[in-house]
Amino acid sequence: MSPSSDAQEYRDYGLESLRNASQSSLRTKLKIFTDVETPYAEFDTEDSPDSLFDEISPAATSSLPAMLHAPPIPGLFFTPSLLLPVQLADDVTHFCLDNYFNRPGVNQIMLFGVASSSNAGAPLSGLPPVLTTLLSTVSSLLEPTLPPEIHALLFPPNPTRARQAILNLYHPGEGIIPHVDLLRRFGDGIVGVSFGSSCVMEFARVDKAADDAAAPLQLFLPERSIIVLSGDARYAWTHGIEKRTADLVADAGVHRVVQRGVRLSITFRWLLPGADVVGQDD
Ligand SMILES: O=C(O)CCC(=O)C(=O)O
Question: Domain named Fe2OG dioxygenase: which ranges (predicted)?
Answer without folding.
Answer: 156-272
